Amino acid sequence: MQKKQYKKNKISKDIKIGKDEIGKIIFRPDDHSVNWIENLVLSNFKKLKKFYKINVSKINLELIYSRKEFNDKINRQTPRWMVGITFKNKIYLLSPFIIEKVSTHKKSELNKIITHELCHIFNNKINKNSLIWVDEGIALFLAKQKKKKDFKKAEWQFFINNFLIKNIDFWSFTKYNGYKISYWTIKTSTNKIGAKNLLDLIKINAKKNNCKNKLEKVLGVSIEDFLKL
């Protein structure tokens, strides 16, 4: 019965602030969590818009009802910790209906998870080629998804060699504890330059050859000195 339910056709609902439509939620008709999700999107969107001070194109958030559907949507196998992913202005998110059954997360974490995914949309609007540690670190920091500082020296060295001023593949980033390192690197950066200046970090283009100089200019110190902080 449950497998059959997962195949039900989805419908959509406009997300509005006043008369202005900011996006849509795509969901299964029997998913009664949709109003709660809508309120989370609205409240976090308003907060982030004040921080970023920019407008983004309309957001489409599609609720997903099985791990298989999630994998099919992004065309690859996904680990249990992954419950949401953003492509441009499209967010795929596991529904509260199944999140605790097929992932390592609780329903209560969805507020922070939605904030995190919305940050990616805002970050991408500023610069679609930002450094991955900046993109992920700012999303974690603004969503208040605190991480323990328990990564290994080898992981930190891998980050310095491969992600500090360039990007390589996302799966190497996750394998070498990229999320925790990104959170702490952004937290350290914020202590140095202030939260408002994090937007300047997003503007650094990972595909350009001047990342090191740009990063040092924003941080106000050399890379070597920054890594000692």
What does this structure look like?
It contains twelve helices and five strands. By secondary structure, the protein is an alpha/beta fold. The chain has a five-stranded mixed beta sheet. Strand 4 (84-87) and strand 5 form a beta hairpin. It is globular and about 55 Å long.
Summarize the helices and strands and which ones pair or pack.
Elements: H1 2-6, E1 11-17, E2 20-27, H2 34-52, E3 59-64, H3 67-74, E4 84-87, E5 90-94, H4 99-102, H5 110-126, H6 132-142, H7 153-162, H8 170-175, H9 178-193, H10 198-202, H11 211-219, H12 223-226
Parallel strand pairs: 2-3, 3-5
Antiparallel strand pairs: 1-2, 4-5
Rounded mean pLDDT is 93
Shape: globular
N- to C-terminal separation? 56 Å
Number of domains: 2
Describe, in short, the structure shown:
This protein is an alpha/beta fold.
Descriptive labels:
229 residues, alpha/beta, Glutaredoxin, 2 domains, five-stranded mixed β-sheet, 12 helices, disordered N terminus
